[in-house]
Amino acid sequence: PAVTATSWLVADLDSGAVLGGCGPHEYGVPASVQKLLLAATMLPRLDPWQEVTVTAEDLAIEPGSSAVGLAEGGRYRIETIWLGLLLKSGNEAANALARLGGGAGGQAGGIRAMNEQARLLGALQTHAVTPSGLDGPGQFTSAYDLALIFRACFADPAFRRYTATRTAEIPGQPALREKPFQIQNDNQLLYRYPGALGGKTGFTDLARHTYVGAAERNGRRLVVTVLGAEIPTQRGWQQGAALLDWGFGLRRDVAVGRLVRPGELTAASAAPTGTVPPSALAGGAGLHGAPAGAATPWAGIGPLLGFGAVLVAGGTVLITRRRRHAVRTSSAMTGQGG
């Protein structure tokens, strides 16, 4: 399909087979699809029925960025905060969940746990600096890594329920004179794509539009990941839908690689080639401590990291990535990290 995304990947959620992609191991900026890594990390750690208090630290988010509307001093069940995160992309919800799951280290401890989880999943091109996906120096991911992360999320029944929820109610806070209110899921795939299972939207000025979504058709479940999309004609979810249609149209035995299993790769494994975007490194450390602005000296592609190695070894197909110039449009989503 004719999409504007600078990189993307389509894979089978169940088998892990990679059906195809464009620049799947190119470094990109995640925006709010970063919240999927937060979910993969914190869902097993936090009791959804526990009632917790939202703090001023949680509400310290970039002015104008996406928020669900949690109140300082408000008491909410963790399940409610998850719904605020995954339906409305609440950045204050992300801060709260990272803090709560970070133990004594607080939010910083939560971010460290996210990066540890990324390495466990084999997402070697992912590094989190913020729990919400708001831009930060040294924060990046790849289309391939996002597929690994979403697949880990989707293995959790609670995540499957949250991401498929269309509406939810945020309870009122009588002590704070806050009334209850309803939120709706921002992922339009749920409403407009038959068989949609869920996903996550994202946008910042730096990342542009990012998207991860999943759907089922004829007993087959696929995931699509999109980075760096512009929307002159199609929004991120629409580009994801077009790629899902393409994937469902392929034979079931078509595959150009596979997604690695959690724990399959070690820190010593070869990592994919690519260049960390200077915009992601500005003012911070590079991948695994590389100096700011330096190219990352990875040599070659590990045989398990995706279809690049398979295609090169076969010697019959060469996939290249053509960078598209970013085009600013007036139809950009309001706010950051949405």
TrEMBL record:
UniProt xrefs under InterPro entries: Beta-lactam/transpept-like, Peptidase_S11, Peptidase_S11_N
Q: Could you provide one GO biological process annotation from this protein's UniProt record?
A: proteolysis
Write down the SUPFAM superfamilies for this protein, in alphabetical order. beta-lactamase/transpeptidase-like
- Per the UniProt record, which residue ranges are transmembrane? 298-319
Q: Which keywords does UniProt give here? A: Carboxypeptidase, Cell shape, Cell wall biogenesis/degradation, Hydrolase, Membrane, Peptidoglycan synthesis, Protease, Signal, Transmembrane, Transmembrane helix
Name by which UniProt lists this protein? D-alanyl-D-alanine carboxypeptidase
Give yes or no: UniProt keyword Aminoacyl-tRNA synthetase: no
Residues that coordinate or bind substrate: 200
Source organism of this protein record = Micromonospora sicca
Q: Which residues form the active site?
A: 32 (acyl-ester intermediate), 35 (proton acceptor), 89
Q: Which family does it belong to?
A: Belongs to the peptidase S11 family.
Q: Which Pfam families match?
A: Peptidase_S11
GO MF: serine-type D-Ala-D-Ala carboxypeptidase activity
Q: Which residues form the Peptidase S11 D-alanyl-D-alanine carboxypeptidase A N-terminal domain?
A: 2-230
According to the lineage, what is the superkingdom?
A: Bacteria
